[in-house]
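> forwarded from #structure-qc
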């Protein structure tokens, strides 16, 4: 099996950028999400150039902190969970991976075990 095949077919959008914000890869779902903006032709472009304020400033802060960021958003009547996580190569910060998952209208929440103190 091709080691990247699962990512291409995943119905959630995956976008990967390098440590400077240049888009390195997008799966099929991400290319579809950003179709109006050019889809996979965005590969090689900088994320900062693709975002207006205040999103651009939030991205700059994310790159400065190199920490994960998770939020929900509603766009065109669809709710999504967005998780942006730093990735590393040989222990060094290499960029971010963004995973965007469309959420169902009714989302079950489960609690497994007691919270730790």
């Amino acid at each position: 099996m091709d080691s990247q095949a699962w990512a291409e077919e995943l119905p959630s959008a995956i976008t990967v950028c390098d440590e400077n914000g240049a888009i390195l890869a997008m799966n099929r779902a991400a290319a579809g999400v950003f179709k109006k903006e050019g889809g996979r032709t965005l590969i090689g472009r900088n994320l900062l150039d693709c975002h207006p304020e205040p999103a651009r400033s939030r991205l700059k802060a994310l790159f400065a902190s190199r920490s994960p960021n998770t939020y929900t958003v509603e766009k065109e009547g669809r709710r999504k969970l967005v998780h942006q996580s730093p990735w590393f190569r040989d222990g060094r910060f290499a960029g971010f991976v963004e995973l965007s998952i469309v959420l169902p209208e009714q989302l079950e929440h489960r609690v497994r075990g007691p919270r730790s103190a």
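QC bot note: The chain has one domain: 5-102. Residues 5-102 form a domain with the Beta-Lactamase fold (CATH 3.30.450.20).
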